[in-house]
Amino acid sequence: MATLVERLRSRARRLTGPRQAILALLRRQSHPLTVREIHAALADSRCDLATIYRSIGMLQEMDLVKRFDFGDGVARFELVGACGHEHHHHLVCNECGKIVEIEECFPETLETEIARRNGFKGVTHRLEFFGTCPDCQ
Fold first, then answer.
1. Backbone angles phi, psi at 131, to 5 degrees
2. Which member of 52, 59, 125, 133 lies 3.0 to 4.6 Å from 64 by CB, making a disulfide possible if both were Cys?
3. CA separation for the pair 114, 112 (Å, rounded)
4. Does the pTM exceed 0.90?
């Protein structure tokens, strides 16, 4: 949390109670959460929806929180580096919406080759997998 506080303060942002609660919640989660899920989890802290939306927006601008869209029109948010590494993918159940983080990724050489063949530079990727989880099969 100290690094997050330093990053906030370096950009003239304070670590308010709601921001601290949101960051702590996201740190404990193993998958991205919607704003409504964050609100429900923080019901005890009297953190209203507007405050959560503003805080998430600011944290996203500062690259402390990453936004995910799994094609259902609902934004989900995850603490950057929360699972010990920056880049990872998700496996999403089409039936129940369960989200599993997966660490497997394409080798960097594949990105480099795709970029080279097409004349691109600075290529990165975002990839999500969809299927039916064991509980829904």
1. -175, -160
2. 59
3. 6
4. no
97-128 confidence digits (pLDDT tens): 888 888 777 788 888 899 999 999 888 887 88
Structure tokens given for 52: 């959560």
98/72 same-domain check: no
* Same structural domain, 31 and 73: yes
Same domain flag for 57 and 15: yes
The verdict on 40 and 59 lying in the same domain is yes
pLDDT band at 84 (very low <50, low <70, confident <90, very high): very low
Encoded amino acid at 42, one letter: L
Q: Are 65 and 51 contacting, i.e. CB atoms less than 8 angstroms apart?
A: no
| One domain for residues 92 and 70 | no
> Which residue range is the domain that position 94 belongs to?
87-137
Task: State the residue for tokens 């929360």.
Answer: 82
Helix ranges restricted to H, 15-128 = 17-28, 35-41, 49-61, 108-118
Identify whether the C-beta of residue 116 lies closer than 8 Å to the C-beta of residue 128: no
